Amino acid sequence: MALPSTNGSLHFPFSFVSGFWVFARSEKWMCHSRPVLFALSLVLALGMTAGAYRFDQKRFESQKISESLTWARQIATQAEGLAMNARKESIDDPMGWAVGFLAQGIEPRIMQITKVLGSQPEPETYLLDKEKGVFEYTKISLPEVSTGIRIRINVPFRGFLDARSRFSDDVTTLAFLLLSWLAVVFLIGLPLGWQFNQKQREDLTSAQAHDITSNMDEPELPVLPLDRRIDPAGWALEAKHLLTGLGKNVREILRSAARLAHASARSHDAVTPIRERIHVQLREIRTVRKILKNEAEVIQLVNLAVKDCFIEENRKRTSRASLGEGDQTMRMSQIAFLLETLKKTNQLSESAIRGLEIGYEPMATDADIAFKSHSEVVAASQTMNEYVTRTKSNLMEQARQMQSMLEEFDSSLPPDGTIHSQGSFSRSA
After folding, report:
1. What is the pLDDT of residue 200?
2. How far apart (Å, rounded) are the C-alpha atoms in residues 231 and 355?
3. Which of the residues 97, 202, 233, 253 has an alpha carbon 20 to 30 A from that of 18?
4. Among 309, 302, 312, 310, which residue's Cα sits nearest to residue 340?
5. CB 286 within 8 A of CB 354
6. DSSP label at 151?
7. Residue 24 to residue 190: CA distance in whole angstroms
8. How crowded is residue 158: how many other Cβ atoms within 10 Å of its Cβ?
9. Rounded to whole angstroms, how far apart are CA atoms 35 and 67?
């Protein structure tokens, strides 16, 4: 197959691979340059690992920027709405009041909100600092007074292939490098080894034919050097031991994957009802607060009506002299006092419920984050279990093929006396 035409960007990789392949097929290479194969395969594996690492980091960066930007814009919209309401109520610093309202509380949060003063070329800017793990979003919401909001979101560390720590990132990178190196060595060495094996078989066949024609009375196989002799029985026993060890390792991997899947499922089932209860309590608190707010408005209207009646009665008080009317005025004063007391009590209750709502909001956010994390763990464990099951099937099929090959090899061996009389078998590449 012809190589695709390039404009220079892919010329060096294809030239390197083609030159490496031509050199690898030479006889001198097959005889003396096996360490060079490992070295060049390591270089190719390093390039593959670097490209995969770079692609994975770019993918994570774009994903986190999109998620954090969406969250920050939602908070900025809430702050702008609160600032507009504060401006209608003639508050001196509406943006500062909105930021203080959103940032109240002493519990640690993954997001910090601050007020920013000054102007900038763009009304909205954002930046992801991967070293510090912080996403910073700045928006000038009130350009006429050069006032805006700044939101900092703590971004958790994510390494290569979604590693959660520096150590796991290094281990994952090294494992990927090792697998890439083994894959390159296998893909390059398999055809070279097959070609070398064919050459050895052709040489052996020609040597046997020459011995048979030169000495028909004593046919025997050519005696090869000691370093090229093998022991078929020992090789078969070692292969059986390797198959047994492989089966034990696969069994332990399956057990670990099953335990991980069960543990993640139990954790997910435990977090789900807690999250639902928190959201139910938060909705009930908001409903009660709305009821108290409506009740406060009704009390305010009744209080205004009673005050109007009280003023009207005081105005007519000079023209009335009966004792019953004086008692009526006193009762109206008491009603007005009780309504004012009820209004203050209602305000205190609304403030207390608002404090409970503010306290529940971070808990609901943490529950949502934990629920999402557990969902990711469950999905990852299910995927891992699926791939482990596929690996198990493949390994079992390979083990059956290896066992069949061993049985055919044992059945094809001649008796021990024949082996000793004819010499030794040659080693294939």
Report:
1. 58
2. 82
3. 202
4. 302
5. no
6. E
7. 12
8. 20
9. 48
β-bridge mates for residue 367, sequence order: none
Determine how β-strand 111-117 pairs with β-strand 134-142.
Answer: unpaired
3-class SS letters over 337-353: HHHHHHHHHHHHHHHHH
Backbone angles phi, psi at 117, to 5 degrees: -115, 145
Domains of the chain, each with CATH number or no CATH: 19-202 (no CATH), 232-429 (1.10.287.950)
Half-sphere exposure of 319 (CA within 13 A, CB side): 4
For tokens 């070398």, the residue is: 196
When computed from its CA atoms, the radius of gyration of the chain, rounded to whole angstroms, is: 41
Tokens coding 42: 């390591």
Structure tokens at 20: 């490496």
Weakly modelled stretches of the chain, pLDDT under 50 = 1-17, 22, 27-32, 216-219, 221, 224, 226-229, 321-323, 417-429
Q: Where are the alpha helices (DSSP H) in 215-231?
A: none
CA distance 369 to 377: 12
Give the predicted TM-score (pTM) of the model: 0.34
Structure tokens at 347: 């305000």
Q: What pLDDT is attached to residue 160?
A: 79
